[in-house]
Fold this protein.
Amino acid sequence: MVVSHSRPLARAAVALATELLPEQPIHIEIAAGTYENELGTDALAVAEAVTAADSGDGVLVLMDLGSAILSAETALELLESPVRVRLCAAPFVEGLIAALATAGGGANLEQVAREAEHALEAKFAQLGNNDSHRESEAEAVTTTTHPAQTARTITTFEVTDPHGLHARPAAELIAALRDLDVDVELRNATTGTGPVPADSLTRLLTLGVSPGHQLEVSALGPDTAAAIDRVRTAVTGD
């Protein structure tokens, strides 16, 4: 759920995230502005929104600034029944998009929060100031062991999609790989950036993949062939 001083701002952020990403089976609640529709936040409204958002898996709360954080903290004390809540320090817009994409993939509350908190990495990378994030990026790349396959399959495609691998196509790629039993890593072979896990929107965006770039795909698992085919479709449109 999102907590903001401005109801129009909160609604616009949610609209951006939901329209940018493929349809996600995630419920989003908004607690923004005062009951008089003025700028501000209300702890009681936040508590009510947390209760409405809870489906049993926990609630991630994204806040814009200042009293939104204070209201969210106060709201936890007002809850009438226990709810697992994570107040997240992620950037408001980028964090919401990353959280929604990750939660839609079935990640748990802590995984979603961690992905949201890394949401500025793509912007750092695009601005050429990613030194402080390289360590966390390296830690995020993990390989799942599949006994039936001992070596990773690696192939490279030229990216011909006019949008490259920006937010929408990256989110669509994550959704396309979601039901496969495979570990996929991607690397921008043109710039040398990566590899990063293909199930992380924030990490994919750090690759800065543009049309004409070479995208290296490394896959390991029973569904390797299907995964490589879906990546090719995502970046070439074929």
Q: What stands out?
A: Residues 39 and 173 are 38 Å apart (CA to CA).
